[in-house]
Give the backbone structure.
Amino acid sequence: MPKKPLLEFTDSGIYCAQGRFYIDPWKPVDDAVITHAHSDHARWGSKRYLAHHLSREVLLYRLGDITLQTVEYGEKVMKNGVEITLFPAGHVIGSAQVRVCYKDEVWVVSGDYKVEDDGVCAPFEPVRCHHFISECTFGMPVYKWKPQQQLFDEMNNWWRQNVQEGKATVVVGYSLGKAQRILQNLDFSIGPVYTHGVIENTNEALRRNGIVLNPTIRITPDTPKDEVRKGIILAPPSSVGTPWMRRFNPYDFGYCSGWMSIRGAKKRRAADRGFVLSDHADWDGLISAIDATGCEKVYLTHGYTASFSRYLNEIGFDASEVHTLFGEDESEEEAPTQPPPKEEGQKSPETSEVLSSGEDLGEAPETSKKGGTS
Ligand SMILES: [Zn+2]
Ligand SMILES: [Zn+2]
């Protein structure tokens, strides 16, 4: 009789029967191990949660009063004889890959990850394993990120220019991850940094967790418009096109997303500037990360799973796609509104699932809960 795999894909999520726990379950379960606090990975309703220390305050802020155990990277936790260890995923602050080991069999669940060291969260660390469960949000050759310094130089120059022209500068990025990465790379000699309430709430949670972030000023109805124009405004995707943003008129607005590398994406967002900034691995990053695990088998959970697994099989990996709800109903990376250009030898990638995800759903619950910005 073939042996049951250590991790399996069930209706509730990735499950370890031996250890009786789930990783990033999308249904309420007894024991949930959470890779990171983005809403498609950390869902409400489970009895007990396990996550990295630095996810603590954001998880409590987003999920409310949950039973949460937190651990350091590399610290071993046993659940019913199965060893669990978290390793840095380089995605956002507190993000982790989950290594699961039982009787010398090792599985790693990547969660979301990027390989470039962003200087804000602990850098991605490859973990040797037999089975690797990987995301592939940007698993197409068109996605190739520039070094972030180049991007932030462009952003700071754009901001400086706007200040000189008397325009406000609004930069849009997801509240957990992008916002802090931008904040830590802005040139404070140009001016102060103002924040939308959704972003400031996340910053505050991170500060409660001991993270030192650059200073920010929360925008309230009383914040003088003339002052804001000398600074830069960090805003979440949900604020685009709202009266909240329009009140900064005249302003220039820049959108930060990996999808900005697709022609036309900036225009569809009605953005003045598109910054190709992502907290996910690009094409080369995915392949190097998968290769570095030395795994026998790779499972692809979200992104261009079909075309990417075909490609991996062609170059000698044993890859297959699995169906999960990651990246689907609430995505930290807004999906493109149309597929990217087709590559040689690749069929149209499976964007339909990605496409179905709402643009700014990831932010919506927070916005409504906290009543917007002020
Ligand atoms: Zn994520
Ligand atoms: Zn994800």
Residues 36, 38, 41, 91, 112, 332 surround zinc ion (ligand 1) (CB under 6 Å). The radius of gyration is 20 Å.
